[in-house]
Structures are given as structure tokens and as C-alpha cells.
Please model this.
Amino acid sequence: MCKVNVLEAKTNFSKLLLLLEKKQESEVIVCRSGKPVAKITLIEDDVSRRIGGAKGHFVCPDDIDEYNDEIAKLFGMV
Model:
């Protein structure tokens, strides 16, 4: 855990985020007049879980590309 004052957090925000990303700190506490007012933590979001998240919930129709040429004309792409 790292404690910083508001000015230090503002000045070194990118560096503080890097500390979190490299897991050198688990959280950053921002203080005003020595009192904690905010906590910055890393969001643990595993991107690999999002890819394919709809698998089995959506069936792609066989004719999905049937109107591609017509749609391209409507957008002036042809």
C-alpha cells in the first residue's frame, strides 16, 4: 500500500498506475491533509474471458452475408 497526497497523486498519476500494473503496489491511497480520501486499485480484468463469451448463445444464420452488396451500396462503398 502506498500513501500519497493529492498534489503528488496529480503530478505522478501515470507512475502510480505503472506501480499498480507492475504489481509493485496493491493499492494507492490518496490523502488530503493527511486523511485518506480515495483508493486507487488495479482492475483485474482477464481479456481472454471476454473473447468467445457469447459462444453457444448465438447462432449465425447461413444467409448472414446475403445483403452485403446492397448494404455497401447504401453506404456508398461500391
In short: The longest helix spans residues 13-21.
